[in-house]
């Protein structure tokens, strides 16, 4: 292998990199949320003690036979339908032979010649790295296939030995392979973001990259701009976040350009990415298809997806982000910004619709969720649906503002109180804490007169045309009422008294 080199400061100018373009393809592995493994009844659960979710089938004892998990097939078809793929009706599994210790069989059960989903694509919105302009493109999918995951090799427990945890071995996976159509790191990141959003909407994978249930390998090659041929591709593994996928694309692109410009040769190999340094290092030369010696598995019969089965899967498909986005705009009358943010996560979209079942002020519900509610959510609380208020209680708060019982200002205080006392009715809480809006004209007029008397110079300035002082007067009245005054009524009384003087 030719040693890596770095361009000299003079050579490593942006225009040198601009002479090349990256050609990127992604392989995304999604662990499916089935209760059991793909070919065995072992539990499919993250976080168990090592080597507890295993059986004689996982450990490949002689005489054991695999049996395909029907739910795994349905989940794969769901993803294919969501991506506009063609669904393969006659499915065969093959043995992919390799002799790493993470699969005790010595082979992985996968799909070789006939993946379950073919074609399709995922639309993304990306940013041009040169101009900063946003553009829309579709990342084309080559195929999606089903396979089993390998176990986990642990190298940090001993200097001389590798520890093996077979809990993950046999976990059902779909592998999504794109065409080599990705050109920038941002496109790669946006595609992976959309994949994660889709699998969560479909409820087939939790999408947690930190737990390894969503993993991505990046294939990168370079070529001169304007060329149509494909260069030698390098696969980069060990990418545990969307940000690191983007960093790996940029890093590998620059490495290959520098290697080419200094007379080196790009070798087809597998590399690992170090998130701390932002650089990759060689692991091994890439295996070829012949190395795997694929052949149909003799222990598994072909799986035929009938018209009836496919129709049943299609009928059970949930609403996808694009459908909900359109619904939020047309049915609920939300602007683009609200609809985009609320459909970013399935949990948020479901919560919004649940709130709207109890109130008709759809825009106010959106404002509360995008503001105070979302402000208290992180990814874990969102995934666990730990919203600060139930949908019914948030809707009740929206209606209290709408009917004038509490002001918008007082509603912020009530929002906090409702979390502290979830069993107390919102109206009772408002009464107990003096948050019910004061609409007593006589009492409010007295407060207004006090404020105007305290600021005679400001009153004079207002009369001379400085009309923006009205907001100051309203604020002072609200302070005196401890936020309980009806702002609309306060405005009316102030306008009347200021004109009368």
UniProtKB/TrEMBL annotation:
EC number(s) reported in the record: 6.3.5.-
TM regions (residue ranges): none
Domain of life: Bacteria
GO biological process: glutaminyl-tRNAGln biosynthesis via transamidation; translation
Catalysis: reaction(s): L-glutamyl-tRNA(Gln) + L-glutamine + ATP + H2O = L-glutaminyl-tRNA(Gln) + L-glutamate + ADP + phosphate + H(+); L-aspartyl-tRNA(Asn) + L-glutamine + ATP + H2O = L-asparaginyl-tRNA(Asn) + L-glutamate + ADP + phosphate + 2 H(+)
Gene3D superfamilies: 1.10.10.410
Assigned keywords, A-Z: ATP-binding, Ligase, Nucleotide-binding, Protein biosynthesis, Transferase
Asn/Gln amidotransferase domain segment(s): 350-498
GO molecular function per UniProt: asparaginyl-tRNA synthase (glutamine-hydrolyzing) activity; ATP binding; glutaminyl-tRNA synthase (glutamine-hydrolyzing) activity; transferase activity
Family assignment from sequence similarity: Belongs to the GatB/GatE family. GatB subfamily.
Cited NCBIfam families: gatB, PRK05477.1-2, PRK05477.1-4
Function: Allows the formation of correctly charged Asn-tRNA(Asn) or Gln-tRNA(Gln) through the transamidation of misacylated Asp-tRNA(Asn) or Glu-tRNA(Gln) in organisms which lack either or both of asparaginyl-tRNA or glutaminyl-tRNA synthetases. The reaction takes place in the presence of glutamine and ATP through an activated phospho-Asp-tRNA(Asn) or phospho-Glu-tRNA(Gln).
Subunit structure: Heterotrimer of A, B and C subunits.
PANTHER family attached to this UniProt entry: GLUTAMYL-TRNA GLN AMIDOTRANSFERASE SUBUNIT B MITOCHONDRIAL AND PROKARYOTIC PET112-RELATED (PTHR11659), GLUTAMYL-TRNA(GLN) AMIDOTRANSFERASE SUBUNIT B, MITOCHONDRIAL (PTHR11659:SF0)
Protein name: Aspartyl/glutamyl-tRNA(Asn/Gln) amidotransferase subunit B
Organism: Spirosoma montaniterrae
Gene behind this protein: gatB
């Amino acid at each position: 292998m030719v040693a890596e080199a770095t361009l000299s400061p003079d050579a490593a100018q942006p225009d040198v990199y601009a002479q090349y373009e990256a050609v990127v393809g992604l392989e995304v592995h999604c662990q499916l949320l089935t209760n059991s493994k793909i070919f065995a009844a072992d539990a499919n659960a993250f976080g168990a003690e090592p080597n507890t979710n295993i059986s004689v089938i996982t450990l490949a004892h002689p005489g054991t036979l695999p049996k395909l998990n029907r739910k795994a097939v349905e989940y794969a078809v769901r993803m294919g339908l969501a991506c506009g793929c063609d669904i393969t009706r006659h499915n065969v599994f093959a043995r992919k032979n390799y002799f790493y210790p993470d699969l005790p069989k010595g082979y992985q059960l996968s799909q070789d010649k006939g993946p379950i989903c073919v074609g399709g694509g995922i639309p993304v919105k990306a940013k041009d790295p040169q101009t900063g302009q946003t553009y829309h493109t579709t990342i084309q999918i080559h195929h999606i296939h089903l396979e089993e995951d390998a176990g986990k090799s642990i190298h940090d427990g001993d200097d001389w030995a590798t520890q093996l945890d077979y809990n993950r071995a046999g976990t059902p996976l779909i592998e999504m392979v794109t065409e080599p159509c990705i050109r920038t790191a941002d496109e790669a990141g946006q595609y992976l973001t959309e994949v994660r959003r889709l699998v969560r909407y479909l409820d087939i994978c939790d999408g947690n990259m930190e737990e390894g249930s969503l993993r991505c390998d990046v294939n990168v090659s370079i070529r001169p701009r304007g060329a149509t041929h494909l260069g030698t591709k390098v696969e980069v593994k060990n990418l545990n976040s969307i940000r690191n996928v983007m960093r790996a694309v940029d890093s590998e692109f620059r490495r290959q350009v520098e290697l080419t410009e200094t007379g080196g040769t790009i070798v087809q190999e597998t590399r690992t990415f170090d998130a701390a340094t932002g650089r990759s290092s060689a692991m091994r030369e890439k295996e070829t298809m012949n190395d795997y010696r694929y052949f149909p598995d003799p222990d598994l019969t072909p799986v035929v997806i009938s018209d009836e089965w496919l129709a049943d899967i299609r009928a059970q498909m949930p609403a996808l982000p694009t459908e909900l986005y359109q619904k939020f705009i047309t049915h609920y009358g939300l602007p683009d910004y609200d609809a985009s943010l609320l459909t970013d996560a399935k949990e948020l979209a479901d919560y919004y619709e649940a709130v709207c079942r109890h109130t008709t002020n759809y825009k106010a519900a959106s404002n509360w969720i995008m503001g105070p509610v979302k402000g208290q959510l992180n990814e874990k609380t969102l995934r666990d649906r730990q919203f600060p208020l139930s949908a019914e209680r948030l809707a009740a708060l929206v209606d209290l503002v709408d009917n004038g019982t509490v002001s918008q200002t007082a509603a912020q205080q009530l929002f906090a109180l409702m979390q502290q006392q979830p069993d107390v009715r919102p109206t009772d809480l408002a009464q107990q804490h003096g948050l019910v809006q004061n609409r007593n004209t006589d009492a409010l007029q007295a407060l207004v007169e006090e404020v105007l008397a305290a600021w005679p110079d400001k009153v004079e300035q207002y009369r001379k045309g400085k009309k923006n002082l009205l907001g100051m007067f309203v604020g002072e009245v609200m302070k005196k009422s401890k936020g309980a005054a009806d702002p609309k009524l306060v405005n009316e009384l102030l306008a009347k008294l200021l004109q009368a003087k």
